[in-house]
Amino acid sequence: MTTSPFDSALERREASLLGMWAFLATELMFFGPLFFGYVHARIAQGDAFVAGSHHMHIVLGTLNTAILMTSSLTMALAVRAARDTRPVRTWLALTALLGLVFLGIKASEWLMELGEAANASGGEARFYFLYYAMTGLHAVHLTIGLGVLAWLWVHARRFSAAYHMPVELTGLYWHFVDIVWVFLYPMFYLLERYR
Amino acid sequence: MDQKNRDSPYLPNYLTEGFTLRSWLTTNDHKRIAILYMVAITAFFFLGGAAATLMRLELATPAGDVVSAETYNKLFTIHGVVMVWFFLIPSIPAVLGNFLVPLMIGARDMAFPRLNLTSWYIYVLGGIFTVAALIAGGVDTGWTFYTPYSTTFSNSNVILVIVGVFITGFSSILTGLNIIVTVHKLRAPGLTWFRLPLFIWANYATSLILLLATPVLAMTLTLVALERLLHIGIFDPALGGDPLLFQHLFWFYSHPAVYIMVLPAMGVASEIIPCFARRPVFGYRFMAYAILGIASIGFLVWGHHMFVSGQSMYAGMVFSMLSFMVAIPSAIKVFNWTATLYKGSITFSAPMLYALGFVGLFLIGGLTGLFLASLALDVHLTDTYFVIAHFHYIMVGGSVMAYLGAIHFWWPKISGRMYPEIMGRIAALTIFFGFNLTFFPQYLLGWLGMPRRYHEYPPEFTLLNLFSSAGAAVLAVGYLLPLCYLSWSLFFGRRAGANPWGATGLEWQTSSPPPPHNFEHEPHVTRMPYDYQPVR
Amino acid sequence: MKFLFLPAASDIAQRVDLLFYTLVALTGMVAIAIITLMIVFCMRYRAGAQVDRTNPPVGLRWLEYGWTFTPLVIFLAIFCWAAVVYAHFYAPAPGAMTVFVVGKQWMWKAEHANGRREIDELHLPLGQPVRLVLSTEDVIHSFYVPAFRIKQDAVPGRYTTISFTPTREGEYWLHCAEYCGTDHARMGGRVVVMAPAAFATWLERGTSNASLAALGFELFRRKGCSGCHAAGSTVHAPDLAGVYGRVVHLQDGRTLVADEGYLRDSILLPKKDVVAGYAPIMPSFQGQLDEGELAALITYLKENRGPEK
What we know:
Order of helices and strands of chain B: HHHHHHHHHHHHHHHH
Structural class of chain B: mainly alpha
Radius of gyration of chain B: 23 Å
Order of helices and strands of chain C: HHEEEEEEEEEEHHHEEHH
CATH class of the largest domain in chain C: Mainly Beta
Mean pLDDT of chain C: 91
Number of helices of chain C: 7
Low-confidence stretches of chain C: none
Largest interface: B-C, 94 and 81 residues
Strand content of chain C: 15-25%
Distance between the termini of chain C: 61 Å
Number of helices of chain B: 16
Helix content of chain B: 55-70%
Helix content of chain C: 25-40%
Mean pLDDT of chain B: 95
CATH topology of the largest domain in chain C: Immunoglobulin-like
Largest sheet of chain B: none
Shape of chain B: globular
Oligomer: heterotrimer
Strand content of chain B: under 5%
CATH superfamily of chain B: Cytochrome c oxidase-like, subunit I domain
Low-confidence stretches of chain B: 1-5
CATH superfamily of the largest domain in chain C: Cupredoxins -  blue copper proteins
């Protein structure tokens, strides 16, 4: 038996949103040391980082960025649909599909770069480590997001204007994952590319 | 419901809701979850205490003759790991915070009850990994995991214990998240921020630190594990890494962590002292701001653990100055607790003895922090027993005493029973005496140059070490006493009414123990906290 | 009370002790004052006592601001004092004698300029400023001499330094103060401060080793450094005569002063700080030189000021 601690649906909604924002703050602090490590290493070995960046597959990276940003659009549309008591399944599926494509492209990039990374030394080795660590951590979060999207898809009939909190919270999480990528993309792909 | 009914011991309450183990392990009631935490952390406290007992046994004589060097190194490691992450950090927030925060703000439960239970299971899972590391042979890196020893040189079960701590970190994070949302969103009508009890302020600020600092630890430990597994070169210079990077990342979390351990204790003192002095706390607003000040400045001082590490002298100066700054709000709080005694009407119940002991011992521990913040002095004192004495004065003389004081103060509310008062006082005094005998000599040992993490030492340090070990024996007895009489009181203690202490605070407006949903009617708050009536 | 006595055997020890005892007095007075006040209040205002309890204050702005700003001022004063003394640990006196100290699990190795080596001991002359250059072969250690009030971590991959002048003859404990594994508690020994004449005798006696600089010169040739860095070389490499202490302009625009750390990095991580105008073609000697050989090379470079002008 669980008595709800909330007095109203509004109170519950506000609390859930605050909870998700607080959770995203922790995620920021979780990525934080890696961002710090990147800054620390790049100051010390900027040239090696530029060299590493030039080995990245810019076309695939840019394509992936476009895919992920589009998935944020479809996610936002899913939230909108849920709010209006319209079907959400299509939008959820599209978002998940785009996420999967992103992961596929990312995985193929990782495989292609593995040889290069294994032979790197010094600053370039650090570049590759941070690349795999940060995009890897990002991919883990994306995969968790895919799992949540699957759960939402299964329970899609529950959502309506009156109750769509899970969709909205997932939207926040998904946008966060997208924003992290928006930082990772220039950090790894765009270093002095068009000098 | 009238006073008489509210005091009836036969009302259905959260304890009588279900008697099966299953009802406890699947509960969403914050009060039951608090009890689950209490049982778990008590077990870990005695595990960490057992390690300390063996350590002090070894240190009673200069020769390393009780355990081998390797075993001693594993003992101090497990003592630190268990006491920091499995006892102190959850102690007040996860036990008393979980139990009291909804009650104190007039809510039915925490904002996310199921997440709360999940947090406990996460904590237990982390504990299982840590105990597994112990059974597998232990870890010998120290709780601080300095690199490259932990990444490259140690042959012990580093990754296993890292996994345990990593997992338990999420329990901390989620508890903090729950408390923050609860305090923001579930306060009863009329309960504005500046009418909140200082216990709530303290746990709220602690939760901010839990939320923002713990993820950094999680990532740092992950990097240590990755380096250990894959030999990458993040922290190990032989592979191109930087050992100081580890120290910066580790202490960025671990300094705020000590405020996680002390702020809730300060909140407890601010509840107990006004009650047993029968008057409002002095300087409520300064007290609230001081709590926030400690939490925020606490994020900026981590480099004071690194004054001799090889970091730049100028960085040391910045961290030293900020460390002096963070001492100021703590000083304010000590002054205010003292001033709260002025013109009060003071009784010396067991909780009050613990709270007064807390103030005195925190004062001494805090003052010795000034020595360590002073750059030139820290060169001599760092990595010696002076530091050990300093942090034990704050964490044991401070936080543990406050935790015990809180358990005694809210025991009637939690269990519906009174503990035997004489035993409570005897235990408090035994602990106070045993604590000082154990740790004061360690200040002297540190000044005289005895380094920490030594299982054998130069013979001139024998007498002081002997005093310290004797004190530890007394302290051990002191800690066992409450375990015994509190358990006894569950079955044979006098039944308690709703408000045996005559305390202010919403938690005392409901029965002891409270009903599952906390309040029969939602409270409306119109008064300031601690509005004790002056005694003629 | 012998067991409570720690000698002050260095110039800086006396300054540290003054600060320490001042702080003891200050914090002692504060602790006694507050604890006394607490006890007095507890006795005077205990329940049942017939005293005036009218209008207990719940706040007093001037008092609260007062006891906020007074500690602030005092703390800033202590901070400044301690920071000034601290700076002395890192500012070697002119004419300071350099000793290379290497920590390794679980012993300390010291090497004097003339080549005399010691293990778990360090002999020093009275009154002579000393600069210890610390390194480690494995994990972090910390060189701690309580009688001197000095302590400095030895960190792998770099040099750290600490400076002081011994002011009292005698033997003093040396401890490792950073946990470094199994025998951390046994990693120590003694520092022996001798009268200058006795030290000079001791230094000459018992060493058949060449001086550090001579060994360094030999390594400089044997390892091929002179192949590129000597005057007649066809390879474009910086002239190293007098390099120690020189201001160096780096490729990325930064400038720094060439100290032991810079020389160490140039040998082990030559691509890290490349001098402006030179190509990064120097090979790394990482793994080819142990700490002792590095110390020798660096000492040679310090003393090689080039031909007399």
